[in-house]
Amino acid sequence: MKHFFALISLISIIQTSNAQLFRKEKVSYDANQGRGSTDNNLLRWGYFLGVNNYDFNFDYNEDLRDIYVKRSPGFSVGLIGNVRINSFIDLRLEPGLLISTRELYYSQSYFQGIPVTAADLTREVKSTYVHIPLLVKISTKRINNFKPFVVGGFSTALNLSSNETNPNDNSNGQFRTTSNNLFYELGFGIDFYLYNFKFTPSIRGLFGINDELVRDEDPNSPWTSNVNSMKSRGVFVNFTFQ
After folding, report:
1. C-alpha dihedral over 30, 34, 37, 38, to 10 degrees?
2. What is the Cα–Cα distance from 93 to 173, expressed in whole angstroms?
3. What is the CATH number of domain 2-241?
4. Beta strands in 29-179 (DSSP E)
5. What string of DSSP letters covers 62-91?
6. Which residue(s) pair with 232 in the sheet?
7. Cα–Cα distances in angstroms (integers) from residue 205 to residues 55, 69, 123, 164, in the given order
8. Measuring CA to CA, which residue among 109, 101, 123, 226 is closest to residue 171?
9. What pLDDT shows up at residue 164?
10. Mean pLDDT for the stretch of residues 29-38
11. What value does the mean pLDDT take over residues 4-21?
12. N or C, fewer C-beta in 10 Å, the chain?
């Protein structure tokens, strides 16, 4: 339902702004009416809505069948603080709340000699991230009411659903991950200049730096013993309003 609402909002914005986007007249800032582009301001603020799709990248100790990750689209919402460096470079802070769900499916080869049920082969990993990226945005020269850009930087995230300190582990059905995580991010997008605000769709890839798996107490645990590292990776599609 959240994704449907975001899609309807996007369609509405595009429909009402179509004439502004594709006309040859360049939208400029009107200080008296407080409308148009504010690119020359040192500080700018905004917010974003979007969808995310998280995955896990595994490295293994032994050559067993890969753990299959079933991904589900998640929801993203947050704020934007933008510092203008010059006409082509901006520094951005984008704190947000990201919600995601992944399901892990294990092969029975991980349970040699161990009685196993269907529930043992599946683990649901729910994540609620307080995500804080610091990004550098590098833009091209503005073309009428369009301005493409690339963006990259580093981020940290606090996973409120990690269960890192939970005393129960996979032997009790509880899959645990680390609470604090680090990532690097790369992406691109286009600024669209409208009369009342600037609308920016963008796509960004996220790549984990640290190992996020919390091992089980049993060193021979079938769920964690063969995993050398487990790092998140993901794709964001964000719609920004400034």
Report:
1. 110
2. 37
3. 2.40.160.20
4. 43-60, 68-84, 89-93, 96-105, 122-139, 146-159
5. S--PPPEEEEEEEEEEEEEEEEE-SSSEEE
6. 56
7. 11, 18, 25, 25
8. 123
9. 94
10. 50
11. 48
12. N
